[in-house]
Structures are given as structure tokens and as C-alpha cells.
Specification:
five-stranded antiparallel beta sheet; alpha+beta
Length: 69
């Protein structure tokens, strides 16, 4: 692959162009944005407070999480 496309800067710019995934944690009512993903685990950032990590399986639990559109 081209070295330009492997750069960290390019990856950051590319990530900013993709639409953000948003989730509602139903038990607390807190809305999170998935700010990064690695190996099937997302780093979730709320509007305020501490960031959280959740796997794809955890986010698929409809009793706890709702994917927002």
C-alpha cells in the first residue's frame, strides 16, 4: 500500500470523514459516540464524563444499548 495511506495523519483524517456511530445506554440514558474501534471493541465518548469501552457483542445487546441514527 502507498506510504501516504499508511500514515497516522491520513488515518485520522479518514476517520473524521466517516459518519460517527452513536449509541444510547438505555439503563442510564447517556448517549455515546464511538470515537474509535480496534479489534471489535469501541471506545465510547459521552457528552460529559468518562469514556467507556464496549465490544460489538455488548453493543448488540438491545436491552442495554440502542444504536441511534
Amino acid at each position: 500500500m502507498n506510504e501516504m495511506y499508511d500514515s497516522t495523519l491520513f488515518q485520522c483524517i479518514d476517520a473524521q470523514c466517516k459518519p460517527l456511530l452513536r449509541y444510547l445506554h438505555k439503563l442510564t440514558g447517556i448517549r455515546y459516540t464511538a470515537v474509535s474501534e480496534a479489534s471489535g471493541t469501541y471506545e465510547l465518548s459521552p457528552i460529559h464524563g468518562e469514556r467507556k469501552h464496549a465490544s460489538q457483542e455488548q453493543l448488540a445487546d438491545a436491552e442495554v444499548w440502542q444504536k441511534l441514527v
